[in-house]
């Protein structure tokens, strides 16, 4: 990293069984298209010793959750759908888990505080789904004073038109949408 490059962290959003294993509550076939780019980002971040945030939606077992007024029950702590997708389990000293109960990794969590304490200036946000958790996380990252980067190939949705609109909004108002190659360079 050159002196002019901002300190960067990788935020992986909801890389869990729920979206990537057939039969799980939020599975959609196109999610698999993001796995190669997500693996490349994770490998590059690990090789460079970058902070990796594994932001995962998890809900308390046995309790009601406001989110279920719009969505079916999902991601209950201890359930298989809430587990990390194989190969994306946190490891090492610079990887943390950010448990979230809403779409954004920054809402009602200490993620902004943690990243500011580590002098992080830029976050690369990748995972699923573009029009829901990625957009919400990107918007809240911006609101918390971080430069936001979303690698185009490392996110998608089962609603392609909404994913396209979300990426357009992110690039226009919130941060930058870049090719995967550029995001990988930012992690070097």
From TrEMBL:
The keyword Hydrolase applies. Keywords: Hydrolase. The keyword Hydrolase applies. Residues 8-178 form the Isochorismatase-like domain. It comes from the Bacteria. One of its GO terms (molecular function) is hydrolase activity. Pfam families: Isochorismatase (PF00857). This is Nicotinamidase-related amidase.
